[in-house]
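U., I forgot to send this yesterday:
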Amino acid sequence: MTEQKGQQQENSRPAGGPGAHTRVREKPHNVGATLRRILHYAAGYRLRLVIVMLCIMISAFAGVAGTYLIKPFIDDYIVPLIGQQNPDLSGFVSLIIKLCCIYAAGVVAAYTYNRLMIPISSGILRQVRTDMYDHMMRLPLKYFDTHSHGEIMSRYSNDTDTLREMLSQGLPQMFSAFLTVTGVFVMMLVLSPLLTLLVLLMLAVMLTVIRKVGSRSGAYFIRQQAEMGRLNGYIEEMINGVKVIKVFCHEDVCKKDFDALNDRLASAACNAHTFANILMPIMGNLSYLHYALTAAIGGILALNGHFGLGTIGSFLQYTRSFSQPITQMAQQVNSILTALAGAERIFRLIDEPLEQDPGTVSLVNVQRAADGSLQECTARSGLWAWKDQAADGSVTYTELKGDVRFQDVVFGYEPEKIVLDHISLYAKPGQKIAFVGATGAGKTTITNLINRFYEIQSGTITYDGIDIRRIEKYHLRRSLAMVLQDTHLFTGTVMENIRYGRLDATDEDCIAAAKCANADYFIRHLPQGYQTVLTGDGANLSQGQRQLLAIARAAVADPPVLILDEATSSIDTHTEALIERGMDQLMQGRTVFVIAHRLSTVRNANAIMVLEHGRIIERGDHDDLIAQKGKYYQLYTGMFELD
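Result:
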């Protein structure tokens, strides 16, 4: 495992126990900027959004206009026709048809905008997730060291879910409610300014209630999101470590921790939904009180001749139509603010600084001309060169030999915590260099720096005489293959997992690599051989078999430089000997860096570096170090054990 980095990751996590990684802001800091970014994603749906807005306007207009027709129904037809023997109902029927057409148009418009918002919101979220993933893949490893998997996953799950609800329901309903309230208020003014004053007084009471209750509900919903992220992170961590939990009989302890996190989530959810659910009954009762007061006062005014029964009929219906959208807007405000806070977290990930890559030197296939010069070619020739194109357009080719040198390198995952202290070493082409030392000495860190997973504070690292900071990271890493102690296999067939090392490798190449890694025998005894599907990080394989596949993956890459980080740590001694003989052919002509606790695996190394507290305290081959009778001698003879 990577030394020091794990400690640095743990130290960066906020307090609160396992899984307490999700840090949620209580409200969006910049609503305008966040909305503008969301609208930027919606730019590709302009026409459909215009149709949606028109449909919302038609739907709102239909509700307002339909209610207004109650007035002519009562004043122009029902009241005048009372007591007539043969009333003329032609106008009445015509008005009914007109009302039906208005409501039908409203229904069609409502269905249309709801139906259109589904693909719009899905398309926007698809692009958001794509941008998140593309950006995440180009983030430096330090970002993943300081953010838990659960925290990152919450961006793809919780935050995108709340954003989807806002786009598909929240914003359209908010716009519809606003238009309805505006239209209803205008029509109430037209019908009776006096009764409208009563409406405004009740509105002030309603808004006060909404502000008091809604703010409490919103705060608890934000807390609910935070607790959900913590619980999800904890569950993910426990699933990944379920074997360790069972080995050390920690089931009860984990359950206790889970119960504590679950109780906090339940408490936040209970409070959030309590305040959210009491808002509607409170608003409903206030609307009933408003309705009763309007009916009483309107009846008195109607009896005094201020307006007809039709006016009070329409006004009473508008009264009911006025409070409902206000309540709806109040409820949507909380969900919209929560979604905007989630969107800000999404955009914060997208805005994270990318892994810097100022390099200009690239890796190309070359072939040697008759005069000995190198010529670039497209076919895989087995010969590589570093292509360096100068500003004036001239191109130079430097043959890739695998000469790696560290010169006075200082590095720390955090500037104040130095892991490598003035390290200098070299690996000549074709040499096998081994690193030994206790955990935390800096062995894995050295290999991480060769890959430029992290940038050094001072000193230089050269590759065939070229500063690796001048080499494009993509091309630098193409020239290397790593076999890590913690093997990771992807969901797919065995063949696909081996081919992951080189995507253009043929089946024959993959089988040859498996044979080189001594994995061919056990693969052929799997249910479907090379076409056996692996899931759950290769859970149906032993740890040793998983590591064999990782070695085969590195072998098929056929790189000039190999990095083996405890590559045979989970393999028995007999299999290890077979693999080493098989990999001798792979190592020929290649520079190999080996990290090993099992010292028998590094005896044949050209040079062995003994590290302690970030410094190289001994160097030489096996015989030299044994003769020195220093730390390596103590380690090899068992006088001092590696941690």
